[in-house]
Structure formats: structure tokens, C-alpha cells
Amino acid sequence: MRNLLFLVSFFLGSQGYACICMPVRILQRATEADFIATAKILEVTRDEANDRYHSVKIEIIDIYKGRRVDELKADFGTGSCAMYTPENTSWLIFAWKNGNGDLSFGYCAGAEQLDKVHKSSRHTAEQLEKAQTNYRRSIRKKLELLLYLKKRNFQLKNKYGLKTYFLNDCIRDIRGYQIESRPFAFYELEIDTSLAVTNIKALKQFGVNELDSKVLNCVKNDLVLQARKNEKSIPKPTKIILGLFYYEGNDRYKSFISQNIH
User: Fold this and answer.
1) How far is CA 254 from the centre of its chain?
2) Is 187 in contact with 241 (CB distance < 8 Å)?
3) 57 touches 42 (CB < 8 A)
4) Are strands 238-247 and 256-258 parallel, antiparallel or unpaired?
5) Which residues contact 262 (CB under 8 A, 6 or more apart)?
6) pLDDT digit of tens for each residue in the chain (262 aa)?
7) Among candidates 5, 184, 2, which has minimal Cα distance to 93?
8) φ and ψ at 143, to 5 degrees?
9) Which of 45, 122, 126, 139 has its CA 20 to 30 A from that of 64?
10) Distance of CA 171 to the CA centre of its chain
């Protein structure tokens, strides 16, 4: 029996009403997902048993996490959150096992069309070109990150769903640095049951001494952790990976560091 991926219906609608998705950082998606891949949509056919669903054959371009699959079920749904995957388009997919043990993914789970072309009669050619450039840059950064994690076999775990935040704009104030070819940095954090960071291990840094020193200082002194439901403790000590990403500057703004890929 062919492996099946069930596609949950979350996407931007065509009626002017946006499907609202909660923001999730790329490293959090990579940590929690059971399957990550880029894939080409080969064929889309209506499911005879359920008009809402479509059978979708896919061809894996590259797989970053999990096992290979060759077919999926797409919930095309209705309204502003309907999912649409045209044939002969390519996608970045983050998938999770649902209650039945089947892998599922959708727009709000991070699915993005790799070969998307920005078109609009309400925007100038210059605005569309800028949007296209920014979109492609974002996709490229995500794929570079996923490939790096795959090659180095990073064990991304976050058992208690901890989230990280910086106080006092510490990271935001680190601007204007130039780096060559290390657009991201990773730190392993050891955390006790009271959500205090007891040890920090630099797994990969940006490669500029002053920049790395300032970033590490922020991690040591300004990082705070939040557990699910704002709980004040966790059952056992744990480890998580903190990811930080570099954005080069231009004529309008200086380079900066972020916890997400925009």
C-alpha cells in the first residue's frame, strides 16, 4: 500500500480574506515535524469517496527528515483557508502524524510553494519584483538551514515545547556587522526544572569574534524561557537548541540578528 500524506486545508483564500496563522519559528517547525521535504506535485485527482479531498501524487526533490512517501491526500476545503496545490508546482512541506498515524500538513503548518510567482494588478512591477526577491530569499534561507541540519544530523528536541525570548531588545540592538558565509548560529541550552538556563554550548557561531561575543552575552543575560500554558516549571531538566539567523543590511537598514527566517 502506498504511503499517504494527508494535507490539512490551510491557505490564503482568493476572496480577500486571509487565513490567519499563528507565527511559528522555523527551528520550532523543524524540531516538531515528523517529516520535512521538498516535493513536486505530479497529479491531482478527485477522491471518489469524498469530494472535499483530492489524491495527490508527488515526487520527492529532497528529504530533510523522515521517510519517503509518494502519494498524499489533499484537503482542498472551502473558503479562505482552502488549500490548492496545482500540478507541476513544487513545495516545501512540514508534516506531522495525526491521530491515525498518517502524516498531515498544510499552509499554517509551514507549506510554501517553491516556484510561486507574484502577480497583482494592484502593484507596480517594481513592487512585485521586490516581493519576488524577498520571497525567494526567504525560501533559500530555509532550505540552507534544513540542509545544514540534515548534513550534521542535529538532534532537534524540545520535549516540553519551550519557547525562547530576549528581554530589553538585546538581540535587536546588534546591528551593522558583516559576515561572509555563516548566516546562522546554534546554541545548546541546558535547562533545569525551574526554567533556568544552567549551561550554554555554542554549536555553531557566526564567525566574527565581536559579533559572537555580543550574541553569547545576550543568550546568557537576556534570554527567557516560556513553557506551555505559561507553566513555571517542567518535570525534568532538559536540553533544547536555540537558533539565530543573520540578515545582511542594505542602503536602508543595517544588518541584524533574528530568531526566525523572514
Assistant:
1) 24
2) yes
3) yes
4) antiparallel
5) 138, 247
6) 344 444 444 333 334 456 677 889 999 999 999 899 999 999 988 877 666 667 778 899 999 999 999 887 776 655 566 677 889 999 998 888 766 667 777 677 788 999 999 888 888 989 999 999 999 999 999 999 999 999 998 889 899 999 999 988 899 999 999 998 779 999 999 999 999 999 999 999 999 999 999 999 999 999 999 998 889 999 999 999 999 999 998 888 999 999 999 8
7) 5
8) -70, -35
9) 45
10) 20
Task: List Cβ neighbours of 91 (8 Å cut-off, separation of 6 or more).
Answer: 38, 39, 40, 41, 85, 111, 112, 113, 114
In 3D, which of 197, 185, 167 has the Cα closest to residue 246? 185
Q: What residues have CB less than 8 Å from 155, skipping those under 6 apart? A: none
Cβ atoms 31, 130 nearer than 8 A: no
Q: Which H or E run includes 139?
A: helix 125-151
Residue pair 77/83 in contact (Cβ under 8 Å)? The answer is yes
Which residue in the block uniquely carries the three cell numbers 528529504? Answer: 63
Q: Check: CB of residue 161 under 8 Å from CB of residue 228.
A: yes
Q: Name the residue with cell 554549536.
A: 203
- pTM for this one? 0.84
Dihedral angle, C-alpha 10, 79, 117, 130, nearest 10 °: -80
